[in-house]
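batch_manifest entry 22 of 60
target: Na+/proline symporter
source organism: Lentzea flaviverrucosa
requested by: lab member K.T.
priority: normal
notes from requester: please return tokens only, no post-processing; we will run our own comparison against the previous entry in this batch. if the run fails, retry once and flag.
--- input ---
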Amino acid sequence: MGTLDWIVVVGYFFVMVGIGLWSRGRVHNIADFFTAGGRMPWWLSGISHHMSGYSAVMFVAFASEAYRLGLTVYVWWSLTIGIGVGIGAFLFAPRWNRLRSKHDVKSPLEYLAKRYNVPTQQVMAYAGALLKVVDIAAKWAAVSILLRGFAGVPITWGIIIIGLVTMIYSVLGGLWADALTDFGQFIIQAAAGFAMLFAVAGTLGWDFPVTIWDKLPDSHSDPLAGPYTSTFLMALFLIKTLEYNGGMWNLAQRYMAAPSGFAAKRSALLSSALWLVWPLVLFFPMWAAPLIVPGLEGAQAENAYIEMGKQMLPAGMIGLVLAGFFSHTMAMVSSDANVIAAVINRDMLPHLWKKVKTFSADNQLKLARITTFSFIGISMIIAIASGGQGFVLKVVVDLVAATMGPIAIPLMLGLLPWFRKVGSTAAIASVVGGLGMWAFLYIEQLSKAAWVTKGVLVSWPLLLSLVLYLSIGFLKKEPSTERDVLLDSLNSDEPEPERVKA
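--- output ---
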């Protein structure tokens, strides 16, 4: 990296901190900090939802899979998310918003105490929080690998530098800072993405999206290749539909922050369209990478995008692309930190420390900022301890994708009126059973059991969790008038009739 590249990167960091300082003036209470007070425009909510859904993992782990296997990574990742979010625009997005507007819910898990009971809420809160801190550690590792590849910065220092900048604007500005930096990062990412696309086109020709497939191995144009089978695809489609419609808690916040259920629906449709189209701009250079930087084997494939950028981009553009990488990770981490702080402050601490319920509004806001700071700090420590290389894909697929289903099923299906008689027994059994199955399969995988493929590791915990939720739920029905009132209130933006309230 040259001087101009460093100026771009440092300037980007200053802009992010500046947004955090400006957003601090818009945060007066925890409703502003966690849900932007329900005042976020639908288009900003949609862009923020999209940006918060992926990170620099795309340019490390997924770039590696695109380099080795080709088209399949778009099919099983971007396509499943785009279609899933489109479905969720009608099923889930408006309901998340109505939880805030009608029930003053500030955390995605807050409604679970009424929907099921407090023990169910606590099981899901602890399981999800532990999963998310490891997931974010993988994001730090991914972006630090990119920083080392482009600029020679050691992984530890890369994590510290990027983490501190993210920590500053997240702690100061809450969800407003997250959303505004998401928008700025979206613009930077667009410039960086098109810069790489045009650089590849200048080398291979403007028709390269069509012609590269004849020069690559035949399997690179297969929709499913390598360990990514139809079983894996179907399981991941269900997981991503649940995950990106609120199972990944920070994405539920984006819907909650919109002014109304209708606005949240528009946000989801915008995010869905972005998921279907924008990753193609980013993936085409990755698919062409074997023709530009051939011979990367094994873990070296994680450096494919780095090597291509160093070879093809002019001064200043490398800094812009690197800032684009940062934007992905910082968007996801800051939004995750915000929602984890919401879960800890609203759902976990009140049951561990009764005094929290008596805190003044100012003290609640201070506690939210302390929790956000602590979560980011812990995830940075885990990332530094991991060493980075090889850690990223294993966490993202083998841990997060495989365990997200069991955690998300009771949370997401609990919003739908069709499952109104499914109670806490089924919910807890679903979470514990699914995670137990994953633990068994993961241990077998570590023992080199050949039958534990990626498809098995991802699909079996999901399937068991779903079967337990549905079978126990319908065999042991637990009807509740309070639950019926809650679910009926989520069907429309209109105020409920007085008789329903009563």
